[in-house]
Amino acid sequence: MKRLNLLCCCVASLLLLGTAEEAEDASKLTKRDRSHLESTLKLNEDKPADDFSGVLQRLRKIYHSSIKPLEQSYRYNELRQHEITDGEITSKPMVLFLGPWSVGKSSMINYLLGLDNTPYQLYTGAEPTTSEFTVIMHGPKLKTIEGIVMAADSARSFSPLEKFGQNFLEKLIGIEVPHKLLERVTFVDTPGIIENRKQQERGYPFNDVCQWFIDRADLIFIVFDPTKLDVGLELEMLFRQLKGRESQIRIILNKADSLATQELMRVYGALFWSLAPLINVTEPPRVYVSSFWPQDYHPDTHRDLFLKEEISLLEDLNQVIENRMENKIAFIRQHAIRVRIHALLVDRYLQTYKDKMTFFSDGELVFRDIVEDPDKFFIFKSILAKTNVSKFDLPNREAYKDFFGINPITSFKLLSQQCSYMGGCFLEKIEKAITRELPDLLGSIGLGKKPNVLSCDITGCGETPKNRYRKP
To answer: pTM for this one?
Structure first.
């Protein structure tokens, strides 16, 4: 009897071992082919990357000589909380992943980089797994960098994150991975949105941190899955922060192969129904429907459709990488336009204050009247009438109440006084950068002419700005 039991146990063990081996073989066979991913993102090409060092040096020189002086003089950073560093100018394109928890953001990054079943892969699971802001960037070897180190390194573009406090820096982590795609782009994985969690429970200003990354992202993937289509307060706030960045938003309906055709159509419609009140644009954002992970699509699903959607998304990503320098120059020019408008507004507030002040006036009461009702003194209308400014670029009037609450109006100088004999006038320099220098730099890239490193030293990046206070 004992021999019979022993024989049965041996047979059962062999059967279990064979089943495990078959399951392992089956799992290997169900891995998805990655050839389309490598060809679309050009990971197999051995040609050297374009050398834009000369363009970046000239862009940095234009920013420091023509934009930053006006930015600092009128304290633009205290209005927009957006200070541009050298690390940000030279940084690679940033792709930001946002969305509810456990919708496949980390799995999607693992899939794009081929990190599954490697020491580099991001941890994934059905429960909320990512509690940190994870920056995945290129490095010679696998390396984890703490947030306090990333913020202290001025060569990186993350030093401004120190303003969000030490609690946040403990939730910031960087991972360097030796991957060819990361030589041209940086991925940022974010904590999943949990609607029943309050801001203070995170220990840091989550929405403010998201806004910092949104302002610097070249492409924003908002990921959903069929089980998490509801929109709560935190997600609604996130979409408010995305206003004005609609062209960079791509919505992804992940895990689409887990649904039958009829269910997928219903889920697709429910997703648009949920997002319609949050995206107030004429043209809806692009929605990609697929399943972004290394396993093969489920049988009896729309494999061809999902593959075409995936390739379309990869082409979108590759386009951002290819246009990185054009986007960088356009971003600096947009920043310069905002700085110029801010300086013109502060100048107009100051000029109005000086006009209304008399010997017997109370300066505080006079300026409070101006700030409370700027339309009464035609502050914003005068900017539109005298300068080439679009009304759609004007900042919020309410923002200047807080701005002047911190910065007294008497601490500023008029634009006409912001000139020097050697340096020229701040306003003329930034206007020249907006209308001539930055468009010329952008055009040189489009024509394939890369300015060499010494171009600024030789030419001075253009003619000397006209100074009305310099004698002929």
So the answer is: 0.80
